[in-house]
Amino acid sequence: MGGFLWCQGEMKRGKAKVKWSVVCLPKDEGGLGGKSLKKWNVALSGGSRIICHWGKEIRQLFVHVIGNGQSTSAWHDTFSDFGLLSNVISAREIHRAEYKDGATVADLMSRFPDVTQCDKIMWKARDGNLVDFSTKAAWESVRNHGDKVEWHNLICFSSCIPRHAFIAWLLMLEKLKTQDKMFPWDVGDGQNGPMLCSLCKTQQDSHNHLFLNVFFQGKFGKDVVV
Fold first, then answer.
1. Are 129 and 53 contained in the same domain?
2. Whole-angstrom Cα distance, residue 99 to residue 92?
3. Number of structural domains in the chain
């Protein structure tokens, strides 16, 4: 999809108009509503507890509410505000204290909040609250987030023309290839002469010049029928 949007079949760095992390934002946060497959796989892997591949990135978001402490790893599970103890205690220090790497919380403590209740695994949501695990909660925690935008309904609606919506989206992000952006690339100062706006012929075009400039509106706005 990245090659289709930006590179026209040739995957090459430096040709993208917008960062892929922005493309994958929801539409109301200024993106196109796609999903990062890497982060989506992280969210899905949490539901099946297949977390060894993703390591601490996903494991630290599972919080164990201690019951009898028998099913919670003392070093590699989060059960307190300190997070994963393996982040602050090295394997050598654990060995020197004569504990095993596979020790549970029950192996370290003699008193528990409730010795008759099993440990419960909760998910740490983005706002810090503990909730039951769901793919939706996991996705909201691991995906990129952006600021809410007010213009998304003006671009994406049921009868919009995709090509027009895409160009308008680039415009709102100020990512069109206007002359002020291309000038640092040393384009147009050679045999083709200086780069000037094709409408007014007085200065380089830019997003503000093309769509907001008072001179442009005064000279050409009367020819536009809304």
1. yes
2. 10
3. 2
121 three-state secondary structure? strand
- Could you tell me if 34 and 23 are in contact, meaning their C-beta atoms sit under 8 angstroms apart? yes
Q: What is the 3-state secondary structure (H, E, C) of 175-198?
A: CCCCHHHHHHHCCCCCCCCCCCCC
List the domain range (segments joined by +) for residue 53: 37-142
In sequence order, what are the beta bridge partners of 214?
Answer: none
Q: What is the pTM of this model?
A: 0.65
Residues of the chain with pLDDT under 50: 50, 52-54, 190-191, 214-216, 225-226
- Domain assignment of residue 62, yes or no: yes
CA–CA dist 99, 111 (Å, integer): 18
* In-domain check, residue 25: no
Other Cβ atoms less than 10 A from the Cβ of 99: the count is 15
| 117 & 203 share domain | no
Asked if the structure places residue 48 within a domain, the reply is yes
| Size of the chain, expressed as the number of residues it contains | 226
* Same domain (yes/no): 119, 75: yes
Here the tokens at position 92 are: 């050598």
Residue the block writes with tokens 């907001």 = 212
Long-range contacts: 79-84, Cβ < 8 Å, 24+? 79/105, 84/56, 84/59, 84/60
CA distances from 81 to 63, 71, 78, 156, 165 (A): 10, 18, 8, 42, 46
Closest CA to 113 of 64, 170, 169, 163: 64
SS3 130: strand
Q: How far is CA 151 from CA 35, 80, 171, 172, in A?
A: 21, 42, 11, 8
